[in-house]
Structures are given as C-alpha cells and as structure tokens.
Amino acid sequence: MARSKVTVVGAGNVGATAAHWIAARELGDVVLVDVLEGIPQGKALDLQESAPVAGFDVRVAGTNSYQETRDSDVVVITAGIARKPGMSRDDLLQTNFGIVKSVTEEVTKASPNAFLIVVSNPVDVMTYAAYRVSGWPKNRVMGMAGVLDSTRFRTFIAQELGVSMKDVSAFVLGGHGDAMVPLVRYSYAGGIPIEKLLPRETIDRIVERTRKGGGEIVNLLKSGSAYYAPGASVADMVEAILRDQRRILPAIAYLEGEYGQRDVFVGVPVILGGNGIEKVVEIELTPEEQDAFQSSVDAVREPMAKLAF
Ligand SMILES: NC(=O)C1=CN([C@@H]2O[C@H](COP(=O)(O)OP(=O)(O)OC[C@H]3O[C@@H](n4cnc5c(N)ncnc54)[C@H](O)[C@@H]3O)[C@@H](O)[C@H]2O)C=CC1
Ligand SMILES: O=C([O-])CC(=O)C(=O)O
Description:
This is Malate dehydrogenase. The chain is of the alpha/beta class. The chain has helices spanning 13-24, 39-49, 51-54, 93-110, 123-134, 146-161, 200-211, 213-221, 228-242, 287-304, and strands at residues 5-9, 29-33, 60-63, 74-77, 115-118, 141-143, 168-173, 181-189, 192-193, 247-256, 262-273, 276-280.
C-alpha cells in the first residue's frame, strides 16, 4: 500500500510543529513548504535526522516549490502572519487572505484530490476563503480550532480537579475568537458532568480562560502565538482522516442549515474520517447556548463580509 503524503504549507512555528507531530506519529511522508528559502529545507532535514533516535520511519522534505507536494492526501495551510500582543485575530484578515488565496490556488492544482485543513487566522474566515477559491466539496475543506480550544479547556478542567487529562472530555463550539462557546453541559471528567465536580465560579473562570487561551499565550510569548498545542491538534485531525477513525471532533465546517446557519464556516462537532467531514453532528442547545453560538457566528460573519474574491 502506498504511504500517505501530507503537505504542510508554512514552515513557521505551527507548520514545523505540526510536521513534527505528524512525522512522529508516522501518519505519512511530510512535505514542508514555505516562501522563505532554506527554512523549509533546513527544518525538514533537521526533523528527518531525528528519525533514527526518535524511532519514526517516514520521509520529510522541505521545498519552496509545489512540484514536490504533488498528489498529497492531506494539505495543511499554516502560511500567514501571527498576531502580537494588542492585536486580534481579525487584524490579520487582509494579509492572510492574500496568502491563503494564493496558497490554495497552488495546492489545489498540485493535489486535486486532497483534504484541506486550514489553520491560518482568522481561521473560520480563512477556511471559507479556501473553500471558495478551491471550489472543492465541503467534506474536503475544513479548519482547525475546536480541537485546540477543547484541549485547552480539558487542560484547565484537569488542573482544577487535580486529575489525569486522559479522563477529561470537553467541547468548544463556535468561531475561534473570544466569543467561542465552551460547552460546560457537555464536558465531563471520568463520565461525570463537570458541573457536579466544580463550583460555578471555578467553571466560569476556566471558561473565560479558554475563550482567551490564544491571547494568554500571545501575551506571554510577545513575538508570536501558540504552536505546540495547535500543532498537536492539527495532527489529530490529519490522523482521523488518514486512519479513517470516524472521530467526533469539533472542526470548522461548512454549514447548510445545521444549527440554523447557512453559507458560513464555523466550529461544530463533526464525524471526521476517511471521507473528511462525514457529518455535522447536531446537538441540542439551551436557549442561552444557542444565543452564545449565534453571537459567535455573527463575529465570524462580520470579517467574512470584508473578503473580496
Ligand atoms: N487555527 C488555530 O487554532 C491557530 C492558528 N494560528 C495561525 O497560524 C498561522 C501561522 O502561525 P505561526 O506558524 O506561529 O506563524 P510563523 O510566522 O511562525 O509562520 C508562518 C510561516 O508562513 C510563511 N508564509 C508566509 N506567506 C507564505 C506563502 N505565501 N506561502 C508559503 N508560506 C508562507 C512564513 O514565511 C512563515 O514561515 C498564523 O496566522 C496564526 O495566527 C496559530 C495558532 C493556532
Ligand atoms: O491566538 C492566536 O493568535 C493563535 C491562535 O489562534 C490560538 O493560539 O488560539
């Protein structure tokens, strides 16, 4: 059986870290692409040279050309600028729109049958842009944010309870901005609803921390944004597709009536497997949760309306 091939566009912090997780989990051969000369080649060679000691057996290549990305099974787009303290993700809109547009044109030519996972921010809007530019079906175009937002929420829950991260599950819905919706009612530790285990004030505090989780890292790093957890979250989605796992994950998906929304990409629970987004899973929301979700979608539609294709 031919080995899978994963292209990661953008060999910066998120791209290189995603490539690392993807290679370490032997999900497929990895091609790193960037406009900077030497960077994707150098990082790919360095990562490849870790294989004998780290114990993985895949090829890792770096390039400035899309030629070598040909016939990839999955393409991850991390190309673009990251925010600095004081900026919102939406401040990156026009610069990253230009980049995501040109990258999408290149990758869709080189790998017409791939699955596309968009990471560049503002990611809900950039996923919509990639969908429009690619003209691909909705099951093959998605964005990564919910896995990251949920892993942050899970981390905070586990830390508050002083229990293993393994036993904590949680869901965050909506756009990847400060209006995202951590779903407390659907969050559990060892199968027990967290509302039965933690006081309301503690839950409210970690919900707020989750919403601002990206900004917390930006303020600490000062010169860029998070990449370890984002890179690992990308690898989880790549694995779900390439290993046909049919996982239920939150992903940025195209909505055509689900959750009362149309013609927008936003984070919702999906079944992710060998056919990409196989289904958007609709769960019942309380009126308050529905209102919060609507506000979050509105916050995605606003910058979306500024895109000129
Ligand atoms: N969706 C999410 O949850 C997350 C999204 N992000 C976003 O991911 C993006 C990347 O972040 P970092 O890796 O930290 O930034 P970075 O600055 O470390 O890397 C970005 C890379 O993209 C490259 N690039 C720029 N234009 C390109 C083009 N046309 N073709 C190919 N490569 C190009 C740059 O040369 C650079 O190496 C940012 O927009 C950031 O906001 C970051 C973390 C989480
Ligand atoms: O906060 C940022 O700009 C990067 C990002 O999306 C995150 O870490 O959640």
